[in-house]
């Protein structure tokens, strides 16, 4: 793998070197580290080769910072050792093709913490267990949710706690102190919820496979860009602009913190804090995007354990093969191609409505317009700031009803389900009619919907680019 073709953002560079983003900024300010490229919105990119050269220079020069920080010295030495091993493997013939527009599979160098994604689920997985249904949302309800607008440049996450980066030893930040790191940015600037749901679905499929085989889960996944783009409905014929757009959506969570709640044996509620995800870089040689998310892995694991059926003695009910019986925990009726939709308020509305329908069981699903808006904080903020809120309501709800028909399989899953007509003005709320109730009556589920694992994705033109999906 050509090291100069792996690029990191400031956050990615900080994680690679094991230092704070402030340290990276200081390196740049002092002329120690010079950016290789400039990305979108004047963001800077550093090549891996560049970072390794900086490490070599700092260790060789006995930089004052390193003399008084043995942890950094140890980390830098490890980086050089790993780099030497990569060079050795490369000299022994481990090479990767650079023909990324035609190659369908990529073999990465051995790395137990990184795994190449070779299959994608055929639908988005949406959590429907009440405690975790807002795990990918700014709606701060339940046992897991996201909190926007935090300046995380000087924060270090470790074991579910947050520390102030720069203190020696590390000083833990209290919940009250954390409020000092809030910024005044609009939550509507976060544009990556659809793609985050897609990434969650990929992780869930991998988790279920690992549970069946008893495999260790990888911390980092490498996503082959053409496969990911096709999965998102963008087609395989992508360019640099498409890749930059995908990366920008992942980067929109850089200043978002995830929170998970748990209850101690004494009944006390405890909060754990994690980055939503870590964008580790883009490898131009293999055309792969590298992403890690301990938070999403933990959410998936929590949901799995919560969904295990228990007997009267609170013991897991088991199948004949010894695996536990599970309660329904996710909906699988939304198509991955919904992620390319520009009206993200409508996309989140679809997620909220689908969750409501799936949770209703044999009852008639219903939800107020005001409840949909309350559960969609970004939409709520846009509505509060809008000069013409009724026009915004019309655009979002009209698009919501169209997406329910075109980007979900509700009509196939629920017999004779009634979905609101987008062209009927009676289905469009105004500020004066936000108490109106939408109902989605049906004659029951046609069949239980299970996640379908595809060998590869299917193009948005409806032509199978790879093998047909097979039931797992």
Topology readout:
Layout: E1 6-8, H1 10-17, H2 21-29, E2 37-38, E3 44-47, H3 48-61, H4 64-67, H5 70-91, E4 114-116, E5 120-121, E6 124-127, E7 144-147, E8 155-158, E9 161-164, E10 171-172, H6 175-178, H7 193-213, E11 220-224, H8 225-231, H9 240-251, E12 257-263, E13 269-275, E14 278-283, E15 288-292, H10 294-306, E16 330-334, H11 344-360, E17 366-368, H12 369-374, H13 377-385, H14 389-406, H15 410-413, E18 437-439, E19 452-454, E20 470-471
Parallel strand pairs: 4-11
Antiparallel strand pairs: 1-3, 1-14, 2-3, 5-19, 6-16, 7-12, 8-9, 9-10, 11-15, 12-13, 14-15, 17-18, 19-20
Helix pairs in contact: 1-2, 3-5, 7-10, 11-14
- Number of helical stretches of at least 4 residues: 15
Mean pLDDT: 80
Broad structural category: alpha+beta
Relative strand content: 15-25%
Main pleated-sheet profile:
7 strands, mixed
Helical percentage: 25-40%
Measured between the Cα atoms of the first and last residue, the distance is 34 Å
How many beta-strand elements?
Answer: 20
Largest sheet strand order: 2-3-1-14-15-11-4
Radius of gyration, in Å, reads 24 Å
What low-confidence regions span 5 or more consecutive residues with pLDDT below 50? 87-111, 451-472
Dominant shape: globular
What features would you describe in this structure?
The protein is an alpha+beta fold and 472 residues long. It contains 15 helices and 20 strands. The chain has helices at 10-17, 21-29, 48-61, 64-67, 70-91, 175-178, 193-213, 225-231, 240-251, 294-306, 344-360, 369-374, 377-385, 389-406, 410-413; strands at 6-8, 37-38, 44-47, 114-116, 120-121, 124-127, 144-147, 155-158, 161-164, 171-172, 220-224, 257-263, 269-275, 278-283, 288-292, 330-334, 366-368, 437-439, 452-454, 470-471. It has a seven-stranded mixed β-sheet. The chain has a three-stranded antiparallel β-sheet with strand order 5-19-20. Strand 9 (161-164) and strand 10 (171-172) form a beta hairpin. 36% of the residues are buried. Mean pLDDT is 80; it is low at 87-111 and 451-472.
């Amino acid at each position: 793998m050509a090291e100069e073709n792996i690029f990191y953002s400031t956050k990615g560079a900080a994680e690679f070197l094991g230092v704070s983003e402030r340290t990276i900024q200081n390196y740049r300010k002092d002329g120690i580290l010079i950016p290789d490229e400039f990305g979108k919105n004047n963001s800077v990119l550093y090549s891996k080769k560049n970072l390794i050269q900086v490490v070599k220079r700092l260790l060789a020069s006995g930089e004052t910072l390193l003399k008084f920080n043995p942890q950094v010295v140890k980390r830098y030495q490890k980086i050089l050792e790993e780099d030497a091993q990569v060079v050795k493997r490369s000299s022994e013939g481990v090479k990767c093709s650079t023909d990324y527009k035609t190659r369908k599979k990529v073999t990465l160098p051995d790395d137990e913490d990184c795994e190449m994604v070779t299959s994608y689920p055929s639908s988005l997985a949406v959590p429907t267990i009440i405690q975790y249904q807002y795990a990918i949302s700014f709606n701060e309800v339940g046992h897991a949710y996201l909190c926007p607008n935090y300046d995380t440049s000087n924060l270090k996450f470790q074991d579910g706690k947050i520390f102030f980066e720069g203190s020696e030893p590390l000083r833990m930040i209290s919940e009250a102190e954390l409020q000092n790191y809030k910024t005044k940015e609009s939550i509507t600037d976060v544009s990556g919820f659809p793609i985050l749901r897609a990434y969650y679905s990929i992780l869930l499929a991998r988790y279920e496979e690992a549970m069946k085989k008893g495999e260790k889960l990888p911390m980092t996944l490498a996503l082959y860009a053409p496969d990911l783009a096709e999965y998102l409905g963008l087609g395989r014929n992508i360019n640099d602009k498409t890749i930059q757009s995908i990366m920008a959506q992942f980067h929109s969570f850089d200043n978002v913190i995830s929170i998970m709640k748990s209850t101690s044996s004494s009944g006390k509620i405890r909060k754990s804090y994690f980055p939503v995800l870590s964008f580790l870089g883009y490898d131009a040689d293999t055309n792969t995007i590298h992403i890690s998310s301990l938070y999403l892995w933990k959410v998936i694991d929590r949901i799995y354990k919560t969904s295990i059926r228990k007997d009267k003695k609170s013991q897991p009910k088991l199948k004949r093969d010894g695996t536990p019986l599970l309660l329904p925990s996710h909906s699988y009726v939304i198509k991955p191609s919904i992620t390319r939709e520009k009206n993200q308020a409508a996309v989140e509305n679809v997620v909220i409505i689908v969750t409501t329908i799936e949770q209703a069981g044999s009852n008639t699903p219903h939800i107020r317009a005001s409840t949909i808006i309350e559960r969609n904080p970004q939409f709520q903020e846009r509505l509060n700031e809008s000069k013409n809120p009724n026009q915004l309501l019309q655009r979002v709800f009209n698009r919501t009803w169209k997406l329910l028909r075109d980007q979900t399989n509700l009509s196939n899953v629920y017999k004779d389900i009634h979905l609101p007509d987008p062209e009927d003005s009676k289905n469009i709320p105004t500020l004066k009619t936000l108490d109106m109730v939408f109902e989605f009556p049906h004659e029951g589920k046609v069949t239980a919907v299970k996640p379908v694992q595809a060998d590869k994705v299917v193009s948005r033109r409806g032509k199978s680019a790879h093998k047909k999906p097979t039931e797992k």
